[in-house]
Amino acid sequence: MALIKQLLVTLCKDIILNNYEDVWLIGPSGQKLQVRAKIDTGANRTSVDRTIAAEIGLLAPDNIVEYREFFSGLGREERPMVRCQLVINGLTRSTTVSISDRSHMKHQVIVGRQDIQSFLVKPANQEENHA
User: Fold this and answer.
1) How far is CA 120 from the centre of its chain?
2) Would you state the pLDDT for residue 123?
3) Phi, psi of 22 (to 5 degrees)
4) Among 120, 124, 123, residue whose Cα is nearest residue 8
5) Is 8 domain-assigned?
6) Partner of 86 at 20 to 30 A CA spacing, among 9, 26, 41, 44?
7) What pTM did the predictor assign?
């Protein structure tokens, strides 16, 4: 049984995500930034802090796809939806992310279900090792 488990872990290591992963965000002009992101299976979409988005050019007027209304514990908020390339475990995907002020939150980037459909998420309640 241990051998089977070891074999599965070896075969699946590239598709299993932990609760926290280092991901790359790539802006419309190729600007890149690596960030520690929370993999959030409770969130539908990926959300990026406004400061990070500005740093890599995601808020350029021609990169904004639309504005959408979001509801959270903080109330109703209209957020810009922008095009972004997201690299997780070496897999690059073109996606649309929401931009919000996450400066008061623990995680500046959360990756939602829309962008982790081809991965398995390890359900362990692991703590983030990076400050």
Assistant:
1) 14
2) 76
3) -80, 125
4) 120
5) no
6) 9
7) 0.82
